[in-house]
TrEMBL record:
<dbReference type="GO" id="GO:0004867">
    <property type="term" value="F:serine-type endopeptidase inhibitor activity"/>
</dbReference>
<dbReference type="InterPro" id="IPR042185">
    <property type="entry name" value="Serpin_sf_2"/>
</dbReference>
<keyword id="KW-0325">Glycoprotein</keyword>
<dbReference type="GO" id="GO:0005615">
    <property type="term" value="C:extracellular space"/>
</dbReference>
<feature type="domain" description="Serpin">
    <location>
        <begin position="57"/>
        <end position="413"/>
    </location>
</feature>
<feature type="signal peptide">
    <location>
        <begin position="1"/>
        <end position="20"/>
    </location>
</feature>
<keyword id="KW-0646">Protease inhibitor</keyword>
<dbReference type="InterPro" id="IPR036186">
    <property type="entry name" value="Serpin_sf"/>
</dbReference>
<protein>
    <recommendedName>
        <fullName>Serpin domain-containing protein</fullName>
    </recommendedName>
</protein>
<keyword id="KW-0722">Serine protease inhibitor</keyword>
<keyword id="KW-0732">Signal</keyword>
<dbReference type="Pfam" id="PF00079">
    <property type="entry name" value="Serpin"/>
</dbReference>
<dbReference type="InterPro" id="IPR042178">
    <property type="entry name" value="Serpin_sf_1"/>
</dbReference>
<dbReference type="InterPro" id="IPR000215">
    <property type="entry name" value="Serpin_fam"/>
</dbReference>
<dbReference type="InterPro" id="IPR023795">
    <property type="entry name" value="Serpin_CS"/>
</dbReference>
<comment type="similarity">
    <text>Belongs to the serpin family.</text>
</comment>
<dbReference type="InterPro" id="IPR023796">
    <property type="entry name" value="Serpin_dom"/>
</dbReference>
Length: 417
């Protein structure tokens, strides 16, 4: 029998504090930045972009099938990063399944390139000059009895910024407090009391976290927020605080998929796609959500004057994703066939549980730097009104790396978890 160990994918809340392309951004050549180094990192990241996007939308499709009428929110880049790091310690079929499950074609990209790409992705996403606060990291909690190979720990630290901590899993209460306190601190209080009912047989717990805080490029004014109706389904109507502003926004009507796409920017390199399907068209949209769809929307967006209503809300998603990943081809690592001998030197471990948790807060606020005053001249004819008053999708991207940071489906914004 193999020893179980828990892999917890811990994701801090996305905290968006104000509105705002899945396109590569263009930097000012006069910026005081090491552009040669930066460009090298970007090239390494670019090799991962299509694979990470394929994984993101494949995972989204699986989650929506399992929870068709519920709020969904997760970070595909967090899941990909955690399992790429786990692949460092996997061998034979176990490793192949993990990397292919992450949508990598191993005849086109080498394992070494994958790890280097993730290393550069983590560095670029955490870059303080990106204009948003985005922190990524990983920690491994180990029982004193388990002695991982020095090469695994060294490689994981160098490539994935892994932090190693000793934990007494024989005392579950003590272990839970240590892990929960660590994650709460790393996620700025967004994720609390995540680990519960810890199995005393646990010998290792792997945690990854992402924390994102972005300020809308064009903040909503709180005084314009008002209670309005949100139509969850044919029988359910709820009241939500609806933010409002008039201005020029990137807009596209996708006639084929019967949806409206609005792109809002954050200060810095992050951007959001808000996608409102026509009534009864959510399922069709979910099935069509692939990277080529996002690219088409990016190419066709046009600046349009409009009145925008968007709900202020907080939701979270918590998933035990072992079953979903198994359906995506990552199978052996959860069974006695697991080969994680690259971690300890012997194939004695298997992954018993994968938990992913994410939280999303959306409100009006912006930064003081965005507090410029502009007088808008209104025409006599009112611009079109786009109101997100029924289930919609929200996708958050990083333009510097073309990474899909978060994907959400908001069915009922009044349900927080």
């Amino acid at each position: 029998m193999k020893t179980d160990f828990y892999v917890y994918l811990l994701l801090a809340g996305l905290y968006t504090v104000a509105p705002g392309q899945l396109v590569t951004s263009h930097h000012d050549p006069n910026e005081p930045k090491d552009h040669v180094h930066y460009a090298g990192e970007a090239i390494a990241c670019l090799k991962l972009v299509p694979n990470n996007a394929d994984f993101a939308f494949h995972f989204f499709n699986k989650v929506t099938l399992e929870e068709p009428n519920k709020n969904i929110f997760f970070s595909p880049v967090s899941i990909s990063t955690a399992f790429a790091m786990l692949a460092l310690g996997a061998r034979s079929t176990t490793q192949t399944q993990i990397l292919e499950g992450l949508a990598f074609n191993l005849t086109e990209i080498q394992e070494k390139e994958i790890h280097e790409g993730f290393h550069n992705l983590i560095h670029m996403l955490s870059h303080p000059e990106s204009g948003v606060q985005l922190n990524m990291g990983s920690a491994i909690f180990l029982t004193e009895k388990l002695k991982p190979l020095k090469k695994f720990l060294d490689d994981a630290k160098a490539l994935y910024q892994l932090e190693t901590l000793t934990t007494n899993f024989n005392n579950p209460t003590e272990a839970e407090k240590q892990i929960n306190d660590y994650i709460e601190k790393k996620t700025h209080g967004k994720i609390t009391n995540l680990v519960k009912e810890m199995d005393p047989q646990t010998v290792m717990l792997l945690a990854t976290f992402v924390f994102f805080r972005g300020n809308w490029e064009k903040p909503f004014k709180p005084e314009n927020t008002e209670e309005r109706e949100f139509f969850v389904d044919a029988e359910t109507i709820v009241k939500v605080p609806m933010m409002y502003q008039t201005g020029r926004f990137d807009l596209y009507f996708d006639m084929e998929l019967s949806c409206t796409v609005v792109r809002l920017h954050y200060n810095g390199s992050a951007t959001a796609f808000l996608v409102l399907p026509a009534k009864g068209k959510m399922k069709q949209l979910e099935q069509a959500l692939v990277k080529e769809t996002i690219r088409e929307w990016s190419d066709r967006l046009l600046q349009s004057k409009m009145r925008l209503y968007f709900p202020k809300f907080s939701i979270s998603g918590s998933y035990e994703i072992t079953n979903i990943l198994s359906k995506m081809g990552i199978v052996d690592v959860f069974t006695d066939r697991a080969d994680l001998s690259g971690i300890t030197g012997a194939p004695e471990l298997k992954v018993s549980k994968v938990v992913h948790k994410a939280a999303l807060d959306v409100d009006e606020r912006g930064t003081e730097a965005a507090a410029a005053t502009a007088a808008e001249i209104m025409t006599m004819s009112l611009p079109p009104t786009i109101e997100f008053n029924r289930p919609f999708l929200m996708l958050i991207f990083d333009r510097d790396t073309n990474s899909t940071l978060f994907i959400g489906k908001i069915v009922n914004p009044t349900i927080t978890s």
